[in-house]
Specification:
Blueprint lengths: L12 E5 L4 H11 L3 E6 L14 E2 L2 E2 H7 L2 E6 L4 H12 L3 E4 L5 H4 L4 H7 L4 E6 L14 H7 L20 H24 L4 E5 H7 L2 H10 L17 E5 L4 E5 L3 H11 L12 H6 L1 H12 L4 H10 L4 E3 L3 H5 L2 H5 L3 E4 L2 E4 L21 H7 L4 H9 L3 E2 L11
Parallel strand pairs: 1-2, 1-6, 2-5, 6-7, 7-8
Antiparallel strand pairs: 3-4, 5-14, 9-10, 10-11, 12-13
Length: 404
Amino acid sequence: MTRSAVGPLAGVRVLDFCHFLAGPYAALALADLGADVVKVEDPGHPDEARRVGPCFDGDESVYFRSLNWAKRSIGIHLATPEGRAVALDLVAGADVVLDNFRPGVMAKLGLDHDPLAAVNPRIVTVSLSGFGATGPAAARPGYDYTIQALAGVMSLTGEPGGPPGKAGISYVDHSGGLAAALAVCAALVERGRTGVGRHVDVALFDVQVSMLTYLAAWQMNGGFVAGRTPHGSHPSIVPAQTFAAADGHLSIFVGNDPMWARFVAALDDHRVMNRAWVTSAGRYEYRTAVIACLQGILAQRPVAEWVDRLTAAGVPCAPVNGVAEALVEPQVAARGLVAEVDGYRCVRGPLPTAAPAPVNGAPRLGQHTDEILAEAGYGPERRRALLDGGVTAAPDLDHSQACH
């Protein structure tokens, strides 16, 4: 019997052939929206995230659990003919197959789109890789770190005169995962019109180049060469950056002239009341003087006082939080951004208001093998034969040191 679910993707079954971060995050977003996500792992080559430290909850990697809650797991030895036959039987009852292997791996396993569509013409397949299935870089391995470098982002990160920097989170992987989830949803809508599935080739590099947006437009159409800016400042909007206050740092973004007027009033300091700075063009022209003046003023009071004062004036600002501080922001609780499943706390997917919070944590490898095969029509004797023959796998644990 299939499990019941709620949410906009309730009734959609996704076979998740993914590992590490980008693909599992795509599948997590779909699971958080109500899809029945079945994580398919080969016990001989399980998701390496199961072994990633430094923190473990008992024998389970906290890294892995953060990306795989609300999923079920089946263990299948995919390289064997019998394992491939089991996978194809699962495809017959599925809506989506999602993978983030290098191009060619799913074809080598006999699980690329054409053989799957022969079993289920309605199947949607989405492959997420570093560079996609075409072009001179298709066969290259692509990871968040290297794509941040190749796509120009590292050249923009860090202080001028310093080394290039990496973004603080793996945003190439996360944004690529969101693009893959979007591709799934778009292809399902198309299938609703045509009755036929399709394959979508998603690349982390494509997504990152797309996210260059205005910087790419300035470069291609205006010859503007972007570079690292001090204190994370915006290349053309002044002031839009971080500032040091008396006890920490805060981020301020003054996006237009009326906002500047409110900002000046909130500061209540004659030093910033310069008529040459009342327009965005003037502030850009005199950027150095504007920033120096503001820094002198903002350094005199604590972060919380400035945040209260500027927020009351309608000026966008925020303390520069650490992760711990971010997670206890009142908005986190109000929006239900943190859930607790099986005694484990996790942040929700990107659309937490679209579906209820999850009730199941990350699965052990093969935890749901028996029930998933039963749903596919396999009787008890057949299920036992597959397990005893080593074609499928029951739960196993990854024994690792706990995080202290």
